[in-house]
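## Example pair
The file below holds two records. Each record gives the amino-acid sequence first, followed by its structure token line.
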Amino acid sequence: MIYKRVSLASSPVLLALLWQFRDEPLAVCTCVSALAFLATWCMVPAATATFKRVGLSGTDMSKPTRPVLAESMGMVAATIYLVATFLFIPAQFRGWWMSSDSQSAHHSHMFPFGRLGEYLSALLSLQSMVFLGFADDVFDLRWRFKLILPTIASIPVLIVYYVGYGVTHVVVPVFMRSSLGTNTVELGFLYYIYIGLMAVFCTNAINILAGINGVEVGQSIVIALSIIIKDIANINNANPEAEYYHLFSLYLLLPFVAVSCALYYWNVYPAHVFVGDTYCYFAGMAFAVCGILGHFSKTLLLLFIPQIFNFVYSAPQIFGLVPCPRHRLPKMVVECPLPPNIVSKVRHEADLASASISESGSEGMVGDTGTEQSLTGLAGLHSTISSAMQSFTKARASKSNISSATRKIQATGKQARGASVRPTAYMVASRTSLENARPLGLTIIRIYERFGIANVERNTQGTMVSVNNLTLLNLVLVQCHRLTESQLNNRILLIQVLNSLLAFFIRYRLSRVFYF
């Protein structure tokens, strides 16, 4: 296996670099992240059989063959992430405990206990969320628990934020300062409610925008890379305190991107494993703790605009205003086209047969039972062959002409059967019935239809009968009609990348109009 050979060859090099740059925490974090990537890359396929044996598996409903894949493999990536971040703890404070006056600094309370507390609280919240996500994969928890559990898991971060930083005011836009008479507004306890709800939203937002190979991990990688780019771009232009928070974000997200890229390799189309709710909760909490303790929660929400739109768009189904099926995955449609050379040859033979029949007149009826059976078998090969055969069997022709034409088309049919033609699976928007929809839900559907973001089916009386399931995945398919699973995943990731560019423009260009 290539991943094993690459891992064995790369590990000694990374360990040597780790030792060489042991005094540079960011370099150490980069090396540890690379080792975490290799570990995840190798451990995911190794753990597949074990997960299947204990019943953690599921059917890939978006494939014609319906393969059974190992589920909850996000647990492997999350575990390796936690191990990597635990091992990195000494590297952050190596400059302190290796110094000659470390003992005196310790006794004089100069050790950065606050920074250690922030890092440990982030890991505690992440570890709690991984455990709760795995419990959801095993026990299939109800939605009310999915809202409560992230709130509980975020308590360590909220406590540390309150004790260590405690800023709860927001800056007022320029055009409102004269009327309010202040540059900032103190929110107090409401600010903690806001960041607590953000933790709940981030963990569930990744989980809602899911359902096809690679989309959960892919969108998380794009968001994480966007935050990393932001941190690197600002780390040298910031004061020491702001520089620390940029480094804090990098220390958490570099290992996250590493394990996610390794997991994406096995989860992207055609997937070998499923990531499960464990990864979705783990990724969402990673972003939440970075945004809260890194003090860029508003920038984080800008990066989550596609997820916010998906949540608002899905709200009628989430809150029961429109019937919501258990799975709102796009629908799979399978096609098995013939190769172009076979299709053109069949058409040519059918044209020759038709011309021969027309010249022969009405000398006889089709009466050869073997010929009729062969024509019936060939009719299922392709719609072109089917139409040609229907015209052929309905015509009046001589038995000799029929036998000659049939032999030619049978030979073509054998070539078609021998050709290596694979069925193509396309994704189309799945639908839900509006029979039991509430009046408010129907009103929202009409508004969606007015704005062109819903495909509504009506009966002859004009009554709404069904609508596409209200997710961003189905909306993309409504606009594009049909896509392969890989193409649909690429469209979602493109939307996420474009949104990151928009978020940077709003944060670093447009915000100056309102806040400076």
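Second record, same layout:
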Amino acid sequence: MMNFLRRRLSDSSFIANLPNGYMTDLQRPEPQQPPPPPPSAGSSAPASGSPAAERRQPPQPAPPQQQQPPPPQQSTGSSFFSSLSNAVKQTAASAGLVDASAAVSAAVGRKFKLLLVIDEPHTDWAKAFRGKKVHGEYDIKVEQAEFSEINLIAHADGNYAVDIQVIRNGTKVIRSFRPDFVLVRQHSYSMAENEDFRNLIIGMQYAGIPSVNSLESIYNFCDKPWVFAQLVSVYKTLGPEKFPLIEQTFYPNHKEMLTMPTFPVVVKIGHAHSGMGKIKVDNHYDFQDIASVVALTQTYATTEPFIDSKYDIRIQKIGSNYKAYMRTSISGNWKTNTGSAMLEQIAMSDKYKLWVDTCSEIFGGLDICAVKAVHGKDGKDYIFEVMDCAMPLIGEHQTEDRQHITELVVSKMNQMLSKTPIPSPQRPTATQQPQSGSLKEPEPNKIPPQRPPPQGGPVQPQGMQSQSQEPLQPQRVFPAGQAAKPAASQPQRPPGPTTQQPRPQAQGPPSSRLSKEAEPQPQPQPEPQPAPQQKPQSHPQLNKSQSLTNTFSFTESSFFRSSVNEDEAKAETIRNLRKSFASLFSD
């Protein structure tokens, strides 16, 4: 019998059309079996092998001198039901019908949010986020890695996975996880170091992972001339008095780099950081030499007038925290970020605040940004660059700035992450059938979808299957929840030849018989109805046997493909199976 059930359960269409909620019930843990009453000290009779006899045996008090009771033994009926439920679970898992709800349950039960921090290993971000919580109940688990150690895969249905390969204490560690949020503290693109991780930014955006800063702004910061174009728009809006932007010329390639009206100039080649790719050119001949170098790099270049500066200015904004620094070169290098320099914090003026607040609005908003400018010996300020969340922390307050970043990320996670995870949309399987809007009933009367026609038979509209599959019944009484209204408005179809095997009326499916018992019966129509076959009386406490009978609802038309004699034999097998289940759980 178990082999017969396994063959039936291996049919994907049969599993897909089980009653609603059955697969959810399978994932619930089975209740603990109550321990049997301990045998009396004077009793030497062996235990009965019948489950009913075991249950009828009255409990007897144990003597005080009795030692530890023996471990409880499972009855034959519960053992059979457990093995049968395990078979259903294994078959459903192999068909992939339980994975989605199990994944959602695991996500709901997870009491932490996973934060991916992309930064160099010298900063321990796990220590900074220790003790922080999202929504007051979710801990924050930190995974830290560099762009070069990260890979990912993202699907259009919202599923994604991030893989990291890091070396910790000389050991190579490979992990795969699903981050809920990303903090980016590293440049994703640099021509100087020949590192291009823009494909990872695209993958994170494809997966829809929220981040600080936004992935859209991070991708836009992968080309400095593109960012400078946004500053030009701000300059045109505020004017040169409020937003003193330096003059700049853009060359998409070397072909137009012929001459400059004034010298000296600063030539910036491509997209680089930390002073790389920047050359000071004093005359026309040197400018031509630099143009030949740009031709070899096959990239763009920009030129700016050289400003003889007294000091550099940096205004940074982290959330709602502002700081301003002044950096003065000691070594005499025109690049103040190269060589020896003196750094000190200065007062935050309204002018500086206007600069950084205006720049923080580009690309949809920058949560972390900094504006760089130079103060010339002529007493004027010149804004020449804006940095995003990958800006390095400087000064004596780096620990405080790191704490501000931590609080900003926690605040963003509270805003952008929901308390209950939303399940990603699932791909439709081949066994799902489209539901007709006219046949849809209220939620309490919901029934399983119609079974598909047998293989090789003609495909009929869903509304006509219920009529063509019952040719021997003059008129069919629909239980509550089935499509009785559309059929009542149409004339009854007389019995006639059909393309499917006719089903005897006496062999109604067990699921329909149980549904008639459990649900209220509608009023029968005036026409005389043929008397249905007497159903076996069900016990009011047979919850497990009813669940099993509802599970094995053999109403699929492909099950009745052979002759009438074979159908009657199979129906007799079903009736015997129900009687066996009823006898197992009758008491």
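Notes on the second record: The longest strand covers residues 309-318. The mean pLDDT is 73.
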